[in-house]
Amino acid sequence: MTDKYAVIGNPIAHSKSPQIHMMFAEQTGQGISYETILAPLDGFTATVERLRSDGYKGCSVTVPFKFEAFELATELSVRARSAQAVNTLTFKDDSINGDNTDGAGLVRDIEQNLGISLKGKRVLLVGAGGAAFGVAQPLFKAGSRLSVTNRTIEKAQRMVESFDEEHVISIFEYSSLKNESFDVVINATSTGLSNEMPPLPSTIFAPGALAYDMMYGRKTPFMKFAREQGAQVADGLGMLVEQAAEAFNIWRGVRPDTAPVISKFRSS
Ligand code: NDP
Q: Which of 189, 191, 212, 241 to mutate to test the pocket of ligand 1 (most atoms within 8 A of CB)?
């Protein structure tokens, strides 16, 4: 019997998750199938219920359903609870377990793949949407000195207020970043999609800084800007593969080797 998994989103056709999970399955000898499922914007819960009754074992959840998945899950991991968003659902007989692997994926990509320890580093997280919520606490727990900024400052405040460590995380308006610089600047906004970038000053990158854009599959204005300021630049492909590996481990109890998967995507 092949265990069935899927990724639910809207839109979803662009998703690389089926290829990633099938490469993991081949590598680890796990018998699974994994497909994309386009859920109507008002039909996330119904889609999950259909998958459960069809015997699926779990699913990944992407834009715009991560908050609905959080509401739907009957059991939540600690990191899903702190992210207030869920990207991985596991279906049990009488429960739906929700987890969030985005933060672990990002931290692993920066520390293991890029070889940059976050401990003690000044990190600026730019954005306070679903992706930022998922990674903020894991970045903090990795030992970084975390600051956050967002166009809608109330959302950044709400994100930080939900953490136990609220008092040690700095919140900046974009306009007050003029005299600040950081060792790691993470773009968790969706500005790359519209070929824009957040209004960051050119002085934002400390010498030798890492500029990490969660976006992948295209060169964004943030990446170009960061390169012009002499920063080391990374896109979000590594994070995508690492968060998938974390989900695969939850479902299958085996951690795949991500390096060959990342390099396959980089070379294609
Ligand atoms: P959301 O829609 O939840 O949040 C969007 C964020 O972008 C908000 O902080 C919003 O600010 C900000 N924003 C949008 N337009 C502008 C603008 N013109 N100027 C300044 N800020 C702006 O999106 P997600 O958080 O889900 O996704 C964000 C990005 O992360 C996407 O590019 C997505 O592809 C990527 N991502 C990558 C992953 C990976 O594995 N590599 C995983 C998850 C996401 P405001 O609050 O003011 O509206």
A: 189
Residues contacting ligand 1 via CB (< 6 Å): 63, 102, 127-132, 150-152, 155, 188-193, 196, 198, 214-216, 236, 239-240, 243
- What dihedral do alpha carbons 143, 145, 150, 154 form, nearest 10°? 90
Query: What structural domains does the chain harbor?
Result: 3-100 (3.40.50.10860), 103-238 (3.40.50.720)
Q: What is the pTM of this model?
A: 0.96
- pLDDT(166) > 70: no
Q: How far apart are CA 58 and CA 254, in angstroms?
A: 15
d(CA 32, CA 157): 41
